[in-house]
Amino acid sequence: MFVQTLPLGQPIPGRNPAAAYQGTDRPKTRTPTPRYGRLPAMQNSEQLPAQDRSRTVTRTPFRHRISEKTAILVAMFAVGLVAVAILYRPWSTPAIGFDSTASVLFFDRLGARQTLEAFVGTTPKPLMTLVYGLAFNLLHDWRLVSIVATVEFPLMLTAAAALAWRTSGPVAAGMAFFGLLGCQLLLLDGALTYANPWAILFWAVAGLALTAEKPRYGLAGLALFLATLARAETFLILALAAAVLVAWRALPSRWIPGGARPPMRATLLLAGVLALPVMVLHDWLLTSNGFFWLDVSAIASRADPSSVETPLQVARDLARHYAEAWPLALLAAVAVVDLVRRRRVVVLLGLIACGPGVLALLELLALRNVYVSYRYTIPADAALVFAAALGVGALVRPLGAIVRRRNLPRALARMAAGERTRDRL
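Given the sequence above, the corresponding structure tokens read:
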């Protein structure tokens, strides 16, 4: 018997391809071919070997996806970096402040195991001694110190914006970012490579760690430890945190929202207190006086008593300073009410410590006849701007329901309500 073979798809000569269906119904369905996965085997075909079958499998291309919130925060950092670089111009002759040059001097003396030859009128800050000392001695160029401060400033802005976003939505994040960027005293402090932006950065990191879905007390304690090595005002946050933890543990359960007690790992939050022995050791090696950081302002004030103001004068200057910012104060009051209503205790306590707590500390310094610099109000100014940003977020969030009722675009409604517009990009 002779069988003629023809190439696949070629009709048999002399036969109509449609004749095979004459008198019968044409097939109405056919098996769909899956988009992904293994293709069905063809009839009258041999199965491919295992090493070849693996090559025929169609795989879904891998795409690394980032959240929309992360993308916006990265864009904020980029915008802040460009803006700060244009303002600071670290590639030219940098404006290094006296405190930062003193930190480099402290690093050199500690490295040489020598004490200071004379009095230096700046409060030692171990974190600045380490960071700026290493940066300068890497290339022996002051521009590198300025570059480090230039990169850190937008990082601080982005961390504060992330905390504001988590607390009160994206509108609050934008207000916090550009509000802190426009804070003149804080911007000047960053230009002089001073320590306030570093402290605010670590305060924001601690807030992010504590407001996460699962609080990370160890990370928050590390951030407060580093912040204490930059600015002593962090002790106000630590003292308030310790008081809250004690009250949380000691008060009756009926007085505690939810009745839950703090976990044992919450004590890691107080790891910032470990900065105290580091500060004492730093100053003892530097001046043979472990509490030199407490005596600097008093010594400088006795050397120039005309610069010291009375507590009444300090209170009057502070009142005049914040009276000029009354719109921010009103928005901050809205934020406080909103935080209390939603029980955002972590952010509320942080604002109390950095705002009224710092102002009370300034009055205490005036009572001790210690010079109060205008730079000492920077933490309180930053807290006011941040609280005002949260107040704007609290006012905008209810607009989301109005926008949805009027059938406006969903993205706009979610943005107003502080929700995510998309989960992934």
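The radius of gyration is 32 Å. Try to locate this feature in the token string yourself.
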